[in-house]
Amino acid sequence: MQKQLLHLVFGGELDNLEDVNFRDLSQLDVVGVFPSYAEAEKAWRAKAQATVDNAQMRYFIVHLHRLLNPDGDDKM
Questions:
Q1: What is the pLDDT of residues 2-48, one digit of tens each?
Q2: Residue extents of the structural domains in the chain
Q3: What is the pTM of this model?
Q4: Is residue 11 within 8 Å of residue 20, measured between CB atoms?
Q5: Counting Cβ atoms within 10 Å, is residue 8 exposed (0-12), middle (13-18) or buried (19+)?
Q6: For domain 7-68, is the CATH number 3.40.50.720?
């Protein structure tokens, strides 16, 4: 069984392009949790391309496996 390295993809409209401060937290788009960076990147790319007309909209990939195991040995 391949090790799960969980990644979260989410996004929303930013107040301004200089900072990562969301305009309305209740409107965040949680795309999902993915078992690999490659799958998360596909989802991120699809969402980013679908919202390209809104300059304030940004999507992010969060490495959840790094938060779950901050020591970095990935032996969970």
A1: 678 999 999 999 999 889 999 999 999 999 999 999 999 999 999 99
A2: 7-68
A3: 0.84
A4: no
A5: middle
A6: no
